[in-house]
Design goal:
Layout (H helix, E strand, L loop, with lengths): L4 E7 L5 H10 L5 E5 L15 E2 L10 H20 L3 E2 L3 E4 L3 H17 L4 E4 H7 L8 E5 L3 E3 L1 H15 L2 E5 L3 E6 L2 E4 L2 E10 L5 H7 L6 E13 L10 E4 L11 E4 L5 E4 L3 E2 L15 H15 L1 H9 L6 H9 L10 E15 L4 E2 L4 E4 L3 E5 L5 H17 L1
Parallel strand pairs: 1-2, 1-12, 2-9, 5-14, 12-21
Antiparallel strand pairs: 3-8, 4-8, 5-7, 6-7, 10-11, 11-12, 13-16, 13-17, 13-18, 14-15, 15-16, 18-19, 20-21
Helix pairs in contact: 1-5, 1-10, 2-10, 7-8
The structure holds flavin-adenine dinucleotide.
Length: 398
Amino acid sequence: MKQNQCQILIVGAGISGLPIARQSVSQGIKDILILEKDYTLGLHSSGRNSGVLHAGMYYTPETLKAKFCVQGNRLMKKFCREKGLTLNETGKVILAGSPSEVESLYELKRRADLCGACTSLINRKKLLEIEPHAAAGTEALFSPDTAVIKPIEVIRALEAELVQSSKVTISYGTVFQGLSGDNQAQTSSGVIRFEKFINTAGSYADQVANRFGLGREYKILPFKGTYKKLTANRTSLVRGNIYPVPNLRTPFLGIHLTRTADDEILVGPTAIPAFGRENYHTFEGWGLETIAILLRDSVLMLRNPTFRQVAMTEPKKYLKWFVLKEAKKLVPELRLNDLTETEHAGIRPQLIHWPTKKLVMDYVVLQSHNSLHVLNPVSPAFTSSMAFAEDVVGRFLG
Ligand SMILES: Cc1cc2nc3c(=O)[nH]c(=O)nc-3n(C[C@H](O)[C@H](O)[C@H](O)COP(=O)(O)OP(=O)(O)OC[C@H]3O[C@@H](n4cnc5c(N)ncnc54)[C@H](O)[C@@H]3O)c2cc1C
């Protein structure tokens, strides 16, 4: 394959792009080039998430999230087993405290049934058998299919398989900059001609789509997910995954407790409005766009009550005390000293539909005659990635 020419050009070697390349190879395509602006894979969402394979109970059945999550969970587990990667099938419980949360719990059960996700409503006795330290209300929802993987292991295994196939080239440190003509991409390494173009640029997918004249009605607002973790002597308080009932009007799942593949207990993530697409730590990732992001935040503060609520409550969770307050709703025995800081943080590139000022709750897939753009690849996009790739390759590449 010549480096300045390919059949399929993919921008972004994260968990959205790599499985699309893999699926393309399995369909007999021999000439795929992936551009990746970094020299190492997994530096963004794909390597900075909770590592949970979700099981598909949060989404309404007409959504793409619902369509791909259940099957994606199965395919990702199969991949992990075949490659000998870490896969902890720990399951998860969702707890309801107040009567309104119990209503939402029933709604989750209804959605799970419609989407073909295996869940069961369990009583207090059964809950305490699964998670002996969980806050026991009258009912909880149990998902046996939720599992935990090591995201970086998955990324590395995909990278190795693709490179070994000799049908895929990953061009590291190469930035897609725009179009220089019909079917010609301008990159930091020169012009590349392509037959089909796939945009899986994660946090930058909106900018790439804009170069094709697509998606101008959307704007990105980055939300930072930070985590605390439990001290080593308290990890026995959580066996698997303990989640609250989320606010179903937002795309976020609320502070939860996750036993990672390294047997640490993560407490998080938050959903704090961030100052940049790569604002992982305090002043990292600030730039000119920070001003535009702050303006968007201000407009949404005025126009979107759900965003206002998130923006008013989430930043408090930088403080241990507020995280503890949420975590105690799940495990009442937790104390302030049980929480410790971690560097682990990720950014959710949340899409806003600007004419309506609404947070977009699903994937947005935009297409032109020669290009396909994956916008809003937020959770559970890691889980869904392989099922999503099957669909994209089937529909777009035929
Ligand atoms: C805090 C947090 C927790 C999460 N937890 C879960 C979870 O438990 N389970 C789950 O299923 N999902 C989870 N998610 C969601 C999941 O991690 C993301 O949906 C997924 O990783 C998105 O992958 P991606 O490949 O689209 O984007 P990315 O991982 O961001 O990859 C995009 C790639 O494109 C590259 N790129 C960007 N612009 C250019 C350019 N112009 N030229 C060349 N390369 C470019 C970037 O460098 C990057 O490597 C979580 C996300 C966050 C932030």
